[in-house]
Amino acid sequence: MVLLRLLVLLFALVVSDLHSLPWFINVSESQGPGTVLQFFSFNCSSYTPTPTLELLNVQPPTTFFNPPSLARWQGTYVGKLTLSSSARLDALMVNHYKLWLKFTCGNYVTEGPLFVDVQRDLSHIQCAGQFASPAGEMIRVPETVRPGARLYILLLPGLELHGAQVFQLQISVSFGQRQSCQGMVMVKVLPVSSSQVSFFEQAQNITIPENLAPGSEVVQVWARGVNLRYEILSPMPSPFFSIGHADGVVRTTAPLELARTPGTVVSRLQVKAFERHQPWDSAELNLTMNVRLVNLWPPRCLPALLVSQIPETAPVGTVLTTLTCEDPDSVGATLDYKLWFRSSSDPASLCLYDRVLEVNATLDCDTPGSCFQHAASILVLDGGQPQMTTEVPVLVMVTPVNEFSPACASRMFRVREDAAPHTLLGSVVGTDMDYPHDNIEYYTSGGPSTFAVDRLSGEVHLLGPLDYEQQRVYRLTVLLIDHGQDQNPNCHRSGSCTITIEVEDVNDHAPECEPPFQELTIYVPLGRSVEVTKVSCRIPQEPQRLAFSYSIVGGNSQNRFILQGAMLVHSDLVLGPFWPEQRNTYELLICVADAGPSIPHLSTTATIVVHPVFWKASREATSIHRTTVPSMMTPMLVTDTEAFWQPQPWFVVVLTATGALLLLVLGWLLGRLLQGLAHLLQAPSKLAQALLLNTIQGTKGSLEGFMEVPKMEISQAPSSIKSLQHFDGRAQDSRTGRDYLFNTCTGARRWL
């Protein structure tokens, strides 16, 4: 027995769930007090207060049911409903009960009905009234009662329905000592028709609504007679109606919902009225119960809530869902459907054809606020009275689709070659028609590392130095990648465009003259102009620059020299004092500047020391002797460019140590170079003085001996000068490293 109850409990845990309400259970009228009607199982968190299960009410009202109990078993709460000690189920009296249960688990509360149908049990006959009570039935008779008079009639439930009563008597006859016999006597009581019991009418038609609760009074029948009792003869048993034995009140015993029990539309009952002590004295009445349809329930739909998700590219006519609805009051009845929008979205986006919800227009989400969510409701209306309506909420989420690729227009930027790092050159403007618009990231696809594109803004920045002479045009491919425009975060589209960057030339190199320092001796006839030398300058880093401007900025105190382009000319057209009074040394400073369109204009200064030798003769001859100093005397052009740089502390320490060591090395080298330079400067000075002296002496002899000689070319020297070209020394040029022979008297050189 214990095992059986355990199996019943396990079965109840599996099949019982409060969420499956309502329940329908059948119980025999023979069940007595303590009978378990139903088990319930509930899930409730252990963190919540103890749950409760309550019996709120019973219809029709009765005390036959105990309050349900609730106990915890293996992590699950099990509820049990039993019959009370006062339970006396009688299907003839009430065969349907409705119990309303309430389960509470913390803040979660749910309620539901339990329908109990009482089934008739013909094998279970119970005595009723005082006869069945422990005190028994008491009858009172006068002392003058005649022998054989009828004292009491026992009517057993169910036997009165057959119209006759049969009694079986077991008789035992004893006579003499220990002598007896036994026998059986069958007594059949036949009904005797009587005209005393009768109904006022033979048939009645009753119309009742289907929403009558079980136990509701339908009609009360009346019959003529004394001490009458009433019962239903047909149908037997009656599933939906019962009649009061004493008052003749016909009541409902079960719900009359036509949708569930369409057979209850018309019910025909045969009611019998009989005298209590003479049941054979009876009369019959035909009752016709017409159940009128009442619109009790709104339409029921599946699904009860419609949530759908579609891409914005869904074509017109795409089916979102098909709604399935029915009217519980009238199965198969026609229902009406209406679409009602809740949000301010375009009502033309969706449409409802009968029960089918479809896309009605293009779902374009590339305009801000155009879609993304459509909130609507489908109203389902039945045809009953009063008309009932069910609202099915509809939420359609339109997901974005990355339809378009980003694009940008080709651009051209110009930048000066002396632009500092991080200079902003311009911006790449990308466009994307998908929403959110222009949600783009920018990247460089290969190309030089001199430029960078900001990932979010598309700004093009300069990262490194530029050199117009090395590269004038850069082409940079910018890659555009969109993001955040599709339901799938990994779905991207890309585009690209080419950026052309032109480097503008900046004059950043000063001219260099070769040689930067010259010392010349010229023979100048009085009253004549003589070309001294041509200043040769160039810019090695920019060989294409050939335009220069020349000007004498120092040393031309008597304005004896002029510049004709790059040519330095000694002008003696205006006769001054006698030539012995003229200066015999001019140290000219010539400024050479680039003359191109680029700014700033940079310049350098060349130094030319000129020793003019004047003579007056009918036949003049000129000669120029050039002396070039070593390159270590070359003037230096220092260009100072200030740039902001903040090194790391460790780098400053390393640089300081390295600089100190370098200064020591440079100091030692400079001392050695100055010693060599002192020796070199002493030798040219002696050579120049000897040359000047010998030249003047030679010139005097030439003026006397060659007054009538025709003019000689400047490149030709007098024979007296040539006779002096005897090389009696050898040295090495400190700049080129080449060896040469020199004349200690004239200073002339011959390269080896």
Automatic annotation (TrEMBL):
The biological process GO terms on file are: homophilic cell adhesion via plasma membrane adhesion molecules
Lineage, uppermost ranks: Eukaryota, Metazoa, Chordata, Craniata, Vertebrata
Cadherin domain segment(s): 302-408, 407-517
Q: What are the UniProt keywords, alphabetically?
A: Calcium, Cell adhesion, Glycoprotein, Membrane, Repeat, Signal, Transmembrane, Transmembrane helix
Q: Which SMART domains match?
A: CA
Query: What does UniProt give as the signal peptide span?
Result: 1-20
Instruction: Check the record and name the Gene3D superfamilies matching this protein.
Output: Cadherins
Q: Where does this one sit in the cell? A: Membrane
Q: Does the keyword Transmembrane helix apply?
A: yes
Q: Name one GO molecular function term.
A: calcium ion binding
What's the protein called, per UniProt? Cadherin-related family member 4 isoform X3
Q: Name one GO cellular component term.
A: cell-cell junction
Q: Which InterPro entries match?
A: Cadherin-domain_protein, Cadherin-like_dom, Cadherin-like_sf, Cadherin_CS
Entry's transmembrane regions: 650-670
Where's it mainly located?
membrane
- Look up the domain of life of the source: Eukaryota
